[in-house]
Write a structure and sequence with these properties.
It holds the Pfam family FGGY_C. This is Rhamnulokinase. GO terms for molecular function: ATP binding; glycerol kinase activity; rhamnulokinase activity. Its EC number is 2.7.1.5. Belongs to the FGGY kinase family. About 35% of the residues lie in helices and about 20% in strands. The longest helix has 27 residues, at about 375-400. It has a seven-stranded mixed sheet with strand order 17-18-16-15-19-20-21, with helices on both faces. It has a six-stranded mixed sheet with strand order 3-2-1-6-14-13, sandwiched between helices. It has about 500 residues and is of the alpha/beta class. The chain starts with 8 loop residues before the first strand and ends in a 5-residue tail after the last helix. It has helices spanning about 55-75, 120-125, 130-135, 145-150, 160-170, 180, 195-200, 225-230, 245-250, 280-285, 310-320, 325-335, 355-365, 375-400, 420-430, 440-455, 460-470, 480-485; strands at about 10-15, 20-30, 35-45, 45-50, 50-55, 80-90, 95-100, 155-160, 175, 185-190, 195, 210-215, 220, 235-240, 260-265, 270-275, 290-295, 300-305, 410, 430-435, 475. Helix 14 crosses helix 15. The protein has two domains: about 10-240, Nucleotidyltransferase, domain 5; about 255-435 and about 460-489, ATPase, nucleotide binding domain (Nucleotidyltransferase, domain 5). It has 18 helices and 21 strands.
Length: about 500
């Protein structure tokens, strides 16, 4: 345990999203909050392999080791001591590891279409109503149970979710962290344990997942080979954090009180409220809300809404066509356009796979009977308006289904830097929007480690106060209909 007086204690956070990753050093002080230093950034993305979309996990883990090596060097130079390492990534995807501890193949990406064909087979065995009544999980065709149903052979292997797979390669210990386990569709939302009856019904081995571990618990110590390669301290441990990146991000929402909604805005938008217990009603299932575990046993009651993946894919396409523009320039041009333009359903599965995103967006607009000009600014404004409208609908549904009201919306993650999106969200919801921090996921990761080490104490309220103390937050207020016509910036 690290005493609060140990000012040389630092924490390494591995934070990987669906398009990029980073290794950061976090420093925590009860008086000044959390400070982060980015040590190593690296790209991430799907690759076509053997006829499917996969993650290049070998390359990803090599980048993780490169980042940890650099972190160890920086800490040593500063006279600091890395106490532990925490890992968070996106959800649902996994690697299959055999009894010898070998990864049998590069993990599939949730963007692959293989699980589409298994949905009907799964529902023929376990109805959607029964699945939801136990797991409380939003239906998405790429949820882990549908992916596992597509596997041709699961004999002698275990499925390690991506953050658990990284932890295994660092420590040799096989565990499944609970916040990510809750996204599999095979986790009991009330009991907080594996839904073994569902595993049996689907013919999945009960040992398909390793035992559960909670945020704040120690996964294990680093393997000798990892210590040698990275130069990390021999007593450094891997500590479970909210390994589903949204769980860590919500833990770092700088809310004062409990009457808040949150939007974790990145590749996807996770829009919802925090609860003490799952909502497993038929109305909730029909609205496609999910009940996922948060840090300290909370429930992240939310719905996936389309995210900034739409924008980044458009930028990628335009750059390939020689139409590259900076994001600030695109957003400024979009903000200058009048309100009331065409919108799309931003979370339509048609936008899941990478492709010519601008054409797909214009086609979706045509299907509504409207037309979208073939100009980047018009496409960007359509994306921003559509996301804000989707956020507003989702938050209204969350309040109706839970019977609670919210007065403020916290936007964290990359979208908190998007002034146009934040203002349009305030206009669409009629609520105050507080933007920041950008690196909420990494802050939540680091805070879970710091609390486990004894550097800070308290519950989520105390952790969130630390985030607020160390973050420059930006507030956006609702504008009336006349002011909204100006677009904003």
């Amino acid at each position: 345990m690290c005493a609060p007086a140990d000012i040389n204690a630092v924490f390494a956070a591995i934070d990987i999203g669906a398009s990029s990753g980073r290794v950061m050093l976090g420093r925590v002080s009860p008086s000044t909050g959390v400070s982060l230093e980015t040590i190593h950034r690296f790209p991430n993305g799907v690759v076509e392999l053997d006829g499917g979309l996969h993650w290049d996990f070998d390359a990803l883990f090599a980048e993780v080791l490169k980042g940890l090596t650099a972190a160890a060097s920086v800490a040593a130079t500063n006279g600091e001591r890395i106490v532990s390492v925490g890992i968070d990534t996106w959800a649902v995807d996994y690697g299959l590891v055999n009894k010898a501890g070998e990864l049998t193949a590069q993990p599939y990406s949730y963007r692959d279409e293989r699980s589409r064909a298994t949905v009907g087979r799964v529902h023929a065995v376990i109805s959607p109503e029964k699945l939801y009544a136990t797991t409380g999980l939003q239906y998405l065709q790429f949820n882990t149970l549908y992916q596992l149903a597509a596997e041709p052979n699961l004999d002698g292997v275990q499925a390690l979710l991506i953050p658990d797979l990284i932890a295994f390669l660092l420590t040799g210990e096989r565990r499944t962290e609970a916040t990510n386990a809750s996204t599999t569709g095979l986790f009991d939302a009330v009991k907080g344990e594996w839904a073994t009856g569902f595993l049996d019904a689907l013919g999945l081995p009960r040992s398909i997942f390793p035992p559960l571990i909670q945020p704040g618990e120690t996964v294990g110590t680093l393997l000798p080979a990892i210590l040698k390669q990275t130069g990390l301290p021999a007593d450094a441990t891997v500590v479970a954090v909210g390994s589903h990146d949204t769980a860590s991000a919500v833990a770092a929402v700088p809310a004062d009180g409990d009457d808040f909604a949150y939007i974790s805005s990145g590749t996807w938008s996770l829009v919802g409220v925090e609860l003490d217990a799952a909502v497993l009603t038929e109305a909730s299932r029909s609205a496609n809300f999910t009940n996922e575990r948060g840090v300290d046993g909370t429930i992240r009651y939310l719905r996936n809404v389309g995210g900034l993946w739409l924008l980044s894919e458009c930028q990628r396409y335009w750059a390939a066509q020689g139409l590259s523009q900076s994001l600030p320039a695109l957003l400024e041009a979009a903000a200058a356009l009048p309100a009331g333009g065409p919108q799309i359903n931003a979370d339509d599965p048609a936008f899941t796979a990478p492709d010519n995103m601008p054409d797909r967006i214009r086609a979706a607009v045509r299907n509504t009977g409207a037309l979208l000009p073939d100009r980047p600014a018009a496409v960007v404004r359509c994306i921003m308006d559509s996301l804000a409208a989707g956020y507003a609908r989702t938050l209204a549904d969350a309040e109706r289904l839970t019977g609670r009201s919210t007065s403020v919306v916290h936007i964290v993650g990359g979208g908190s830097q998007n002034r146009l999106l934040c203002q349009l969200t305030a206009d669409a919801t009629g609520k105050s929007v507080i933007a920041g921090p950008v690196e909420a996921t990494a802050q939540g990761n680091v805070l879970a480690q710091a609390r486990a080490a004894g550097v800070v104490a308290g519950g989520l309220s105390e952790l969130r106060a630390l985030v607020a103390a160390g973050t420059q937050l930006v507030r956006y207020e609702f504008r009336d209909a006349f002011a909204s016509q100006s677009g904003g910036s």
